Amino acid sequence: MTADLSTLATAKSTLIDLAIRFGPKLFVAMLIMIAGFVVGGWVARAVGRALHRLELEPPVRQLLTRLARVLVLGLFIIMALQNLGVELLPLIAGLSVAGAGLALATQGVLSNMVAGLTIIFTKPYRVGDYVAIVGVEGRVDAISMFNTVLLHPDQSRVVVPNRKIVGEILHNYGRIRQTDLKVNVAYESDLPRALGMLRDLVRANPRVLAEPAPVIQIVGLGDSAVQIAVKPWIAVTDYSAVPGELNLTIVETLRQHGITIPYPQHEVRLIGGTSKI
User: Would you kindly state where each structural domain of the chain is located, as residue ranges?
Assistant: First the structure.
């Protein structure tokens, strides 16, 4: 019983001694960390406002503001450790070894990060552009450090890791696309009149852009019809709706003006007399 009391008294004395020796330093270190979070947030907001005036891309602004916050917080962490009397050189050496092991274990994540930085600063595409890459396509909805999110025409989302994008052939349509429709008219039709009607009805569609001008021209002479290409420019968001609208208008307009859309025809001739057995 006496030994237990002696042990408790020793532990209590040790705790009191540690509290007296390190308590003030620990309290000051906590104050430094709190100040670091406050100052880091203030610096990040100030940097964000400054970058907003430069009209940078949202991912670039987000990256630079986070980097400013991390740098400020790192500086205050060093100050807190120094206040506690921690030797920084052995700590840095240990973190370097741990960082090397962590880098080997997260090669995929790091490659995505490096690729994300490449995309953010080289700007092969921006949010809102319509792109086709690595077998998928869609409108760019978000660009982050690790992946790019595409909004597919069927309203699904395609998440592409950034490392799959850098180094690949990228087709960037931008904010507008050119649709490609084909119209067949009979050879006996008044072709200049048919071309004029197609130009008028295309321009009458409110979704079709005036500039660049739509391309409407004869592109082929088929077996039973003259083939006319109708290629208007439209916004990416209207790409799925406009072809159906134009096809309906084209069919109705040509019917009203007596211009025939011929069916495929084949003429078969039987040559030869009566066979003898």
Answer: 22-105, 124-174, 176-256
Fold (topology level) of 176-256: Alpha-Beta Plaits (3.30.70)
Secondary structure (DSSP) of 2-14: HHHHHHHHHHHHH
Q: Which residues pair with 161 in a beta bridge?
A: 147
Per residue of the chain (277 residues), what is the pLDDT tens digit? 555 556 655 655 665 665 566 666 677 778 877 888 888 888 888 877 776 766 666 666 777 787 788 888 877 777 777 766 666 566 565 556 555 555 554 455 677 777 877 887 778 888 888 898 888 888 888 888 788 899 888 888 889 888 888 888 888 988 888 888 898 888 888 888 888 888 889 888 888 888 888 889 988 888 788 888 999 999 888 888 888 889 999 888 888 888 888 877 667 777 765 555 4
Give the type of residue at 277. Answer: I
Strands 176-178 and 136-143: unpaired
Specify the CATH class of 124-174 in words.
Answer: mainly beta
Residue with structure tokens 């203030």?
42
Alpha helices (H) in 123-264, listed in sequence order: 191-204, 242-256
Q: What CATH code would you report for 22-105? A: 1.10.287.1260
How far apart CA 125 and CA 64 sit, in angstroms, is: 19
Helix H or strand E encompassing 76? helix 58-83
The answer to whether the beta carbons of residues 72 and 42 sit under 8 Å apart is no
Asked whether this chain's domains 22-105 and 124-174 adopt the same fold, the reply is no
| 3-state secondary structure labels for all residues of 106-152 | CHHHHHHHHHHHHHHHHCCCCCCCEEEECCEEEEEEEECCCEEEEEC
